[in-house]
Amino acid sequence: MRLQFIGAAHEVTGSATLLYTENYKILVDFGLEQGVNLYDNIDFPENPGDIDCVLLTHAHIDHSGKLPVLVKNGFSGPIYMSVPTERLCSIMLLDSAHIQEQEAEWKNRKSMRAGNGSVEPLYTTNDARAALQLMKAVDYNTPTEILPGVSIRLLDAGHLLGSASIEVSVTEKGKTEKLLFSGDLGNVDRPLIKNPQKPDPVDYVIIESTYGNRTHGERKDYVEQLRDIIQTTLDKGGNVVIPAFAVGRTQEMLYLIREIKTRNLIKNHDNFPVWVDSPLAVEATNVYSTDFMSYCDETTKELLVQGINPIRFSGLKTSITSNDSVAINLDPTPKVIISASGMCEAGRIRHHLKHNLWRPECTVLFVGYQSEGTLGNAILSGKESVKLFGEEISVRARLAQMDGISGHADEPLLLDWIGALKDCPPKKVFVNHGNDSVTDEFAEKIHALYGMDAEAPYSGGTYLLGDTVECLDKGVTTPVPERTPRQAAAKASSVFQRLLMAGKRLLSVIEHNRGGANKDLAKFADQIDALCNKWDR
């Protein structure tokens, strides 16, 4: 077997790893990158049509967001995931596709005014629908054969509703070996969902390290933290603006606010309004509000048994249309506004920041990870002003963070999770999904604490698995020089990436025609030559 790391190698987002068995090519996650990356990712090394199947750890876009690209370029195999992940992807990928189409439309309007060429969206809603048709749901802790000699088992990762660590068992030449992809591991004792499930002995582990060098600190009372922020802000006549991931963090905030309202903890602001301003978040909340009894924690189960919806309450308002969203800031009533995206990179949250970030009576409450290079990170880092919609906006609102509410396990929890294997250590631990220095530091901590062979691979890093693990290719180990905006745009060109994939697909088609009739092969060659003559410039 071989492992090749493509994305989330010495970086936090864009998860993608290829597992090569003797007979199959299996892709684990295929996510979009967010923020700035220190190293270039390699181009996807295979013709998508040659991938046998995909394993998806959870629905977040940095793990699932490029699946429609894969399908668009020829992949037609099954995509395995948990039941809630399938339901959440059905809304998240369509939402992502809509954003891709909107951005392409905006760029084309701007490009036409400048007399330049057009761009295409990374993928369309039709591409997303095609990907959804390939999805197959699997229950937790149920071994499932996905290919002859290859089976998987999903463990609850405790990061998001339906998030999974995926154990892959591969039998070749009478010998079975197991790999475990941690996916994103969750924090403990959070609202709604269960704690991460500990792993069983395996031969190889691929573990995330988002907070691999940080500790969340002493756990404060979530309800009390949020109550204090809301009370103080409403007393000053301001709004509490919460950039929150539409799936997961938004629902956790609603759970806590329901508790605050149920216990009448906010004084002098009876039935204060709470807006969820994100069509995606509204749809995801509907998923969380329905049948997920077997996936939630015991406290939430007790509420459901009593007939209490854990994330709905009096004063909750939802915004679907653009007009609804605009009206929120026209209303002077002090309120709580929860909107996406969680890192402030896109979506309606940017409009709410434009209207509230400059107001000292308001609070912007960050409740999730802010990747380097994102607007959320810039605001938290102390910038005096940020640019929104071409306008310079002063940062005068109170900036706050909730301690310990992160959806990711911190260093002690990650070490505790991998420490479950200390009595039967894996042959190799690969550390991914973390910032550059963090991945190396966390690999060193694993080795120092448990004596396990641990390494942080780079994009393109390829490893031959066996009794000993051999590195066949270190991958991209040189940081990219700082690019001009024009160079960065060229690098990010989704259309050129399509062209590269089309070329790989053409090579695959040529190989499939080996042994064909000479007359047909000659005609095929003439067509390729004519195409090359047209574009060789």
| Number of separate helices | 16
Major beta sheet, strand line-up: 6-5-4-3-2-1-22-23
How much strand content do the residues show?
A: 15-25%
Structural class: alpha/beta
Oligomer: single chain
Overall shape: it is globular
Report the end-to-end length measured between terminal Cα atoms.
41 Å
* Topology, number of strands: 23
* Major sheet description: 8 strands, mixed
- Rg result: 24 Å
CATH superfamily of the largest domain: Ribonuclease Z/Hydroxyacylglutathione hydrolase-like
User: Which fold name fills CATH's third level, the topology of the largest domain?
Assistant: Metallo-beta-lactamase, Chain A
| Residues in helices, as a percent range | 25-40%
Overall pLDDT score: 90
